[in-house]
Amino acid sequence: MITVKVPASTGNVGPGFDVLGLALTLYNEISFEESGDTLDISGCPEKFANEDNIAYKAFCETLAYKGLKAPKGLKIVFKSDIPICRGLGSSSTLIVGGIIGANAVHSLGLSKSEMLFIANKLEGHPDNAAPAIFGGLIASSVNDGEVYVADYKVNEELKFTALVPDFETSTEKAREMLPENIKRTDAVYTVGCLALLLKAFECADKKLLAAALDDKLHQPYRKQLIPGFDDIRKLAIANGADGLIISGSGSTLLAVGGPKDFEDKMAQGLKAFAGNWRVLSLKADLEGAKVINQD
Ligand code: HSE
Question: Cα(21)–Cα(129) distance, rounded to whole angstroms?
């Protein structure tokens, strides 16, 4: 049996819409074993335990990429700490896990770039799969059909707090809310935030972080899907965070920075908001997905 450990990720990281992603210390462990002659999936809700399972599809797609057939029998076991459909890259962990699982089970020798190419084909945007594969803060861009990747430093002092509500947002709906065209001034503002953010993450510069954790491409449109967003942001900043962004397309919100008691204060303050918010204290994962067990 082969077990792959894949980190959660936050897509966009504020101004890097569809481009920037950060791997986080929350994990999905997925085990694969080719045996028997049926598909046997466990450790996930019953409705996902079938041939439409994303990790299974990614496993088969990876074999097809190398001209190989889907296995006759496959056992897949999930063990995950990542909230599902909350903007923390849980579906990317399934895709990346399936690809790395197939690569390991069949000794395919795929490079990380090839893995990202397959993942992007399956997911449609690389901003979660790239940090899940490489770890850390990664920019990825699809130019002329090729996925280009650049990695940036994350200062080890930086802490991240995921605020996870009990409601989901649909990525499809959250994408539909975005306008086709944006004003040049909004584009310039967002490019400026992105450029500042990359330096701010490297230096943990509080002033730069406060200015850079913003955008005018997606969050102003999407925040309506998260009741209380503006007040929760104010609360996070009043409690000492450098900024608060929507994680991916939501519904999780991600606070950057904050003092030691930040999580406790947020847990207390969030009781006033609908959504039974959970508070998860995280760091950047700098290693990316890896095989942790190979019998
Ligand atoms: N970049 C994507 C979006 C991430 O914001 O729609 C969601 O998975």
Answer: 8
**Protein residue with its CA nearest to atom 6 in ligand 1:** 249
Q: What is the pLDDT of residues 54-72, one digit of tens each?
A: 999 999 999 999 999 999 9
Residues 174-202 pLDDT 10s: 999 999 999 999 999 999 999 999 999 99
> Ligand 1 centre from 127 Cα, in Å?
7
99's CB contacts (< 8 A; 6+ apart) are: 58, 59, 61, 62, 110, 115, 118, 119
Under 8 Å between Cβ of 65 and 102: no
Ligand 1, atom nearest to 222 Cα: 5
Does the pTM surpass 0.85? The reply is yes
Provide the pLDDT for residue 145. 85
- Phi then psi for residue 266, to 5 deg, are -65, -45
Q: How far is the CA of 18 from the centre of ligand 1 (A)?
A: 6
User: Separation of 171 CA from ligand 1 center, angstroms?
Assistant: 7
Say how many Å lie between the CA of residue 125 and the centre of ligand 1. Answer: 8
CB 245 within 8 A of CB 209: no
Q: What Å distances lie between residue 30 and 75, 120, 213, CA to CA?
A: 10, 20, 33
